[in-house]
Design the sequence.
């Protein structure tokens, strides 16, 4: 498939004489996930996700986990878990309204990136839920556009450590310290009724 540009995109391409280049790059956009894409995506421990609501308002969120938390289900589909957050569900609420998402995967040490745009769905009973400890539900994205992106402005960075809050089978996940503050200053009823932070043996950690 070749990417179809709208009039405003074409206007910038004409202004800066990049239409020929854009057309060539647009021919590389595909709706399938290659083996190379699979390896890259499944090796990532984070990505950025944009979503839009029914009124066209956009939000962008960070999603993090351990390498492999995003899975390529088949050549058209990826899946990832939704973990407990701040309770606003801005991105996931948008998914329920419009399904439109854009995902950006970046390898900061290797200075490369892949973009995947498509249609997302949410299923609390997805069979993959059982494979993600503490997942509230699983999000699946059917790819519409998959393509590499110019890497020149990616800053080279190295991972120091993974977040201690990422759920793992082999370890108890602590609650973030801000939930203890909410419990102490705003009342326990502010938190969800089954929040682990309300347990007598709750362990808290900074962040």
Sequence:
């Amino acid at each position: 498939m070749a990417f179809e540009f709208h009039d405003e995109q074409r206007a910038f391409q004409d202004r800066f004489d990049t239409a020929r280049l854009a057309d060539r790059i647009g021919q590389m956009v595909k709706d399938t996930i290659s083996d190379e894409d699979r390896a890259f995506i499944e090796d990532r421990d984070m990505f950025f996700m944009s979503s839009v609501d029914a009124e066209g308002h956009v939000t962008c969120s960070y999603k993090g986990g351990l390498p492999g938390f995003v899975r390529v289900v088949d050549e058209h589909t990826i899946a990832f878990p939704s973990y407990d957050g701040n309770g606003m569900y801005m991105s996931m609420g948008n998914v329920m309204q419009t399904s439109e998402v854009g995902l950006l995967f970046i390898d900061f040490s290797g200075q490369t990136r892949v973009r995947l745009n498509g249609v997302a769905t949410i299923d609390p009973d997805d069979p993959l839920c059982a494979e993600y400890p503490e997942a509230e539900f699983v999000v699946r994205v059917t790819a519409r556009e998959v393509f590499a992106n110019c890497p020149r402005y990616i800053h080279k960075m190295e991972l120091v450590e993974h977040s201690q809050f990422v759920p793992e089978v082999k370890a108890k996940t602590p609650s973030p310290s801000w939930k203890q503050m909410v419990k102490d200053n705003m009342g326990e009823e502010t938190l969800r009724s089954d929040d682990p932070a309300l347990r007598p043996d709750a362990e808290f950690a900074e962040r």
